[in-house]
From TrEMBL:
Residues 108-291 form the Mur ligase central domain. The gene is mpl. SUPFAM superfamilies: MurCD N-terminal domain, MurD-like peptide ligases, catalytic domain, MurD-like peptide ligases, peptide-binding domain. Residues 2-98 form the Mur ligase N-terminal catalytic domain. ATP binds at residues 110-116. It comes from Simiduia agarivorans (strain DSM 21679 / JCM 13881 / BCRC 17597 / SA1). Pathway: Cell wall biogenesis; peptidoglycan recycling. Reutilizes the intact tripeptide L-alanyl-gamma-D-glutamyl-meso-diaminopimelate by linking it to UDP-N-acetylmuramate. It is an enzyme of class 6 (ligase). This is UDP-N-acetylmuramate--L-alanyl-gamma-D-glutamyl-meso-2,6-diaminoheptandioate ligase. Its cofactor is Mg(2+).
Length: 450
């Protein structure tokens, strides 16, 4: 079977391509921006990529075209596809029908922490000898790739609420038919497709409706948005986290580097790991609870997390140069920014903490979170806001303390400024959900040359 994927270099579609290739399918694809790390993963899998959207790539016709949700009407190859008789499906539908059939799906949904929790869960199952398949919107450091088929009935999927395709406006996660479902948290995001939080809650309830009665929903007790979702109807087993009925955590260090895990008040052991932040403690509880649903004892899960290596671009330490620690983080929402910086503050104590933030997500570029962003960086000693091209609101509106916060719009000038001003003992966290113009590499190179 020959499948051709439109928009193949996105994290989800690229991972999907690798899974299809591992199933023995002939896989090709196209995209406008072919760049690492996904292009490297696809090349290693023997997947041919066409640069651009020339309709000629559909001749000879593949057996099936899988359409990424970044593709829209008016795109030349999309119009050629619609004018042809070639069958086509969305990525999530293809995943369900071709790769998840008869598997026990463990889905991780929520506004924050999906990638990290999915990675923790896949690692716990792997350590427990369950050899799970997975598709994750990032690269777990323990595995080195964003997707694999696995050798067991279990499959972990990061379950995104974004829409499936231009012709299927349902959230991706309704396709997966999860048996174990984690709802990490729920806040307003994706303002480009959702008008308000209530609209997102409606999609999450559609997800809840797909979980079977013998399935299980795992969620933090007391999250108001999730409570509203469940109040619309729930027909599955429930496990609230942070309550006497489920799993709880007792912090042993302020930064979350050590914590005791308890189930219904009974100690299951202590996690000692290299992760930081209370958000990661919450992610860990969710992963432990999800693994428990498929038979992994909490003791084994706790032991597995001790060797969890994190996820690329989730507070990933890139380098330490001249005593300056440089981190890359994917945070693109005020809550994620705030929790990441709070975790770093607890870790580094009184050392100088610098945040460099590019508001790149569709929601951030629209200025929707403008009022919340200034408070989100409260733990940083110095803040650099980067004004990207195409953002039609001035980031100067975020600045409350001109001595502490700066707005910059020229990448190379910013690199020179940082390379000169960073001092031994500083911790710089670079936050963007995109490539940020390669600033990480440029800054490291500039500091090495000084």
């Amino acid at each position: 079977m020959h499948i051709h994927i439109l928009g193949i270099c996105g994290t989800f579609m690229g991972s999907l391509a690798q899974l299809a290739r591992a199933r023995g399918m002939q896989v090709t694809g196209c995209d406008a921006n072919v760049y690492p790390p996904m292009s490297d993963q696809l090349a290693a899998a023997g997947i041919e990529i066409v640069q651009g959207f020339d309709p000629a790539q559909l001749n000879p016709a593949p057996d099936l075209v899988v359409v990424g949700n970044a593709m829209s009407r008016g795109n030349p190859v999309v119009e050629a596809l619609l004018n042809s008789t070639i069958p086509y499906v969305s990525g999530p539908q293809f995943l369900r029908e071709q790769l998840l059939d008869e598997r026990w799906v463990l889905a991780v949904a929520g506004t924050h922490g999906k990638t990290t929790t999915s990675s923790m869960l896949a690692w716990i199952l792997d350590v427990a000898g369950m050899a799970p398949g997975y598709l994750i919107g990032g690269v777990p450091q323990n595995f080195g790739v964003s997707a694999r088929l696995g050798d067991s009935p279990f499959f972990v999927v990061e379950a995104d609420e974004y829409d499936s395709a231009f012709f299927d406006k349902r959230s991706k996660f309704v396709h997966y038919r999860a048996r174990t479902c984690v709802l990490n948290n729920l806040e307003f995001d994706h303002a480009d497709i959702f008008p308000d939080l209530a609209a997102i809650e409606r999609q999450f309830h559609h997800l809840v409706r797909t979980v079977p009665s013998q399935g299980r929903l795992i969620y933090p007790a007391g999250d108001p948005a999730i409570s509203r979702v469940l109040a619309q109807g729930c027909w599955s087993e429930q496990m609230p986290l942070g309550s006497a009925e489920g799993f709880t955590a007792n912090l042993l260090t302020p930064d979350g580097g050590e914590f005791e895990v308890c189930m219904r008040g009974e100690s299951c052991g202590v996690v000692r790991w290299g992760q930081t932040g209370l958000h990661n403690v919450s992610n860990a509880l969710a992963a432990i609870a999800a693994a428990h649903h498929v038979g992994v004892t909490p003791v084994v899960a706790v032991q597995a997390l001790a060797t969890f290596a994190g996820v690329k671009r989730r507070l990933e330490k890139l380098a330490e140069i001249r005593g300056v620690s440089i981190y890359d983080d994917f945070a693109h929402h005020p809550t994620a920014i705030a929790t990441t910086l709070q975790g770093m503050r607890n870790k580094v104590g009184q050392s100088r903490l610098i945040a460099l933030i590019e508001p790149r997500s569709n929601t951030m570029r629209m200025g929707v979170h403008g009022e919340a962003l200034p408070d989100a960086v409260g733990q940083a000693d110095q803040v650099y806001w980067f004004q990207p091209e195409g953002v039609d609101w001035a980031l100067e509106s975020l600045v409350r303390d001109p001595g502490r916060e700066k707005v910059r719009s020229q990448l190379d000038t910013l690199v020179d400024e940082l390379a000169t001003q960073l001092q031994a003992g500083d911790h710089l966290v670079i936050m963007s959900n995109g490539g940020f113009g390669g600033i990480h590499r440029k800054l490291i190179k500039a500091m090495e040359q000084q």
